[in-house]
Amino acid sequence: MTKISIVSKKMSLAVIVALSFSSLALAKDKLSTLELINIAGKQRMLSQRIAKDYLYRGGNIAVNKANKQLSRTLRESQHAQASLKNSIDKPRIVNLLEFVDMNNEDILAKTQEDFNIDNAQYVLDLSETMLEGNEYIMVSLSKLSSAETSKLIDLSERQGMLAQRIAKYYIAYQLGIKDKNTIKQMNAAVESFTRNHKELMSNKTNSPEIKKKLKRVDRLWKIVYKFYLDIQMGGLPLIVFNTSDEITSKMDEISSLYVDLKK
């Protein structure tokens, strides 16, 4: 048995136990629409990070970090899903949440299997389906709230998703999934991040703290986006892993600050 498969099986038990406790710990109070928008936005990011972590671990790159993060991401996604189901009663959204549940079960099971290119492609496909489902939930919730505020939350959480999406496609290419779609999706994610970043930077309602965090992201992005575009050259998987995580963390903080602006 390989070292990775042993780690995976250990992680499997840890994840199952953790998911059970996270569900029990779920608060009974209903969440506000803006809070739900923030959670749904984070779910989009988690769908991409699950695939990224699985691929990095399978490729023997940043194995310990990727393995720990994958376990935490699966746990966070399950807890977020429970929060959404606990607070949403719109029939169409509830129905889609059930579909997302099925995808969550599939990707949880697949990430416990030994790594190979076929499994990697399947996880990539599942992460795309999860992203689409959570995108629909996000859009549906946004229609129930302040257009301007929900847009800012959407954009900032979308940036975290795009950072993880960039890392996902970068490592997929390095591991051998080198079709044209991989490069196309990577370039599209970089372009979207750049466009959204400019919009957030120019928003006139940004608080001093939001401005400070956006400036940090701005400095980092100006340096690393060229690395991301060099997907065909490769050679920088650790830089891509670490910088995409830092950007995601900062954008998650910014999204929460936008939620707080309206409380």
Characterise this structure.
The structure is a single chain. The chain is mainly alpha-helical and 263 residues long. It has one domain. Helices cover 82% and strands 0% of the residues. It is globular and about 45 Å long. The relative contact order is 0.13.
Give the SSE string.
HHHHHHHHH
Number of domains: 1
Secondary structure tally, helices: 9
N-C termini distance: 52 Å
Number of strands: 0
- In which range does the helix fraction lie? over 70%
- Which regions contain 5 or more consecutive residues with pLDDT less than 50? 3-28
**What is the residue-mean pLDDT, rounded to a whole number?**
86
- Alpha-beta content class: mainly alpha
Radius of gyration of CA atoms, rounded to a whole number: 18 Å
For the largest beta-sheet, the strand count, sense and barrel status come to:
none
Globular, elongated, flat, extended or rod-shaped: what is the shape? globular
Share of residues in strands: under 5%
Summary of the model, kept short:
The protein is mainly α. The chain has 9 helices and no strands.
Task: Chart the SSEs and their pairings.
Layout: H1 3-24, H2 33-58, H3 63-87, H4 91-110, H5 117-142, H6 147-174, H7 180-201, H8 208-229, H9 237-261
